[in-house]
């Protein structure tokens, strides 16, 4: 597995872990990101049309970034 794929997998794992086991610090970050995603035209029923990620989990992946550079 390439390092970029492994990194992406780690982001996915982190995001879903934080969705299932929330912390106040991550929830604050997720709220800020989710507010940005809510107004994005690429938000298709909580799935990002650019990267295919489930937005509630992606917003909680602490090191991940928006594919459009919005956060």
Notes on the structure:
- The chain has 71 residues and is mostly helical.
- The chain has one domain (3-58).
- The chain is built from three helices and no strands.
- The chain has helices spanning 3-20, 24-38, 55-58.
- The termini are far apart.
- The model has no long low-confidence stretch (mean pLDDT 97).
Q: Which percent band covers the strand fraction? A: under 5%
Low-confidence stretches: none
The overall number of domains is 1
Largest sheet: none
Strand segment count: 0
Figure out the total of helices.
3
Give a short summary of the structure.
The chain is mainly alpha-helical and 71 residues long. The chain has helices at residues 3-20, 24-38, 55-58. Helices cover 52% and strands 0% of the residues.
Secondary-structure map:
Blueprint: H1 3-20, H2 24-38, H3 55-58
Looking at this protein, list some descriptive labels.
mainly alpha, 52% helix
